[in-house]
Amino acid sequence: MTTLPPIRDVIQRHGLSASKALGQNFLLDEQLLSRIAALPGDLAGKQVLEVGPGPGGLTRALLRAGANVTAIEMDRRCLPALEELGEAFPGQLKVIEGDALKLDHGDLMNGQPFHVLSNLPYNVGTALFVRWLGGEAWPPQWQSLTLMFQREVAERIVAQPGSSAYGRLAVLAQWRSSAKLAMKVHRSAFTPPPKVMSAIVHVTPAAAPEGVSARTLERLTEAAFGQRRKMLRQSLKGVPGALEALGALGIDETRRAETVSVAEFVGLARSLG
Ligand code: SAM
User: Fold this and answer.
1) Is 174's C-beta closer than 6 angstroms to any atom of ligand 1?
2) Among 261, 249, 271, which Cα is nearest to 224's?
3) 1 — pLDDT class (breaks 50, 70, 90)
4) What pTM was computed for the model?
5) How remote is the CA of residue 212 from the centroid of ligand 1, in Å?
6) 4 Cβ contact list (under 8 Å, min separation 6)
7) Cα of 67 to ligand 1 centre, how many Å?
């Protein structure tokens, strides 16, 4: 195995004091990082997109697992440390300096299938998650997403109907994918520790239900959960055809969005065309 200096030393040597503005909370525990890198299964020879490698803790675990990593990092202070890492794993690491929210990931990966792994600041992670899970084209180019979120957001992604965590994010994550809470991560695992606990969500694409437009489903969940305390007959009033679809599918219009299963939302979206 390639011997590398501890990440703590890399951070010190390159003066990578954590920037609050960039949401930097680094993971230094190499055992934990190896366990995270193993979540998608065997990555030997696979293409991996890592967003926000920072000083490269997760990156080195991915490289050790034999992955070919393309890493997007916004903080140019991290680039020399990542360059050193690339030299230790010749031909396996490509670093792109930039904002992951502004780049076309499919293009970056040259149209090849890829796995995504990332420990990102909360707002960037959620924005990318919504982008990766959205759109009409399915299956996506990515084969799995392994993403760190603040625990409360992870729970919203895997939530089931009937819970207060269940909402748009759960439907988005579950209607044509399988989403699992793969690992809880204590705040003390990070340097510096964030205020809240974290968890890793693992998502794999499934078959898309036939005849359902992602946009229609999104419009429905936006309306339904936009007024989640209201009955469906009120919250879906503004969506043309929705009340008739409720009747046709035998969904009681006095129910609230929180009780409507992913399959029922899919059925409604299909009826609306
Ligand atoms: N992966 C490292 C780890 O696990 O220790 C660093 C994690 S730190 C929470 C998040 C990283 O994402 C930082 O290095 C930060 O500079 C980077 N970052 C933040 N916003 C970004 C964006 N929009 N595009 C690319 N990288 C971003």
Assistant:
1) no
2) 261
3) low
4) 0.96
5) 35
6) 10, 60, 85, 88
7) 19
Q: Which residues contact 223 (CB under 8 A, 6 or more apart)?
A: 235, 236, 238, 239, 242
Any atom of ligand 1 within 6 Å of the Cβ of 85: no
Question: Which CATH number does 214-271 carry?
Answer: 1.10.8.100
Give the mean pLDDT of 88-112: 97
> Which two three-digit tokens encode residue 162?
């009937």
In the block, residue with structure tokens 């036939």: 210
Confidence (pLDDT) at 123 = 85
7-205 placed in CATH 3.30.1300.10 = no
CA torsion sign, 200 to 204 to 91 to 65? positive
* Count of C-beta atoms within a 10 Å radius of residue 249: 12
Q: How many A from CA of 188 to the centre of ligand 1?
A: 18
Query: Taking the domains of the chain in order of start, what are their residue ranges?
Result: 7-205, 214-271
Average pLDDT over residues 164-183: 98
Q: Does the pLDDT of residue 210 top 80, yes or no?
A: yes
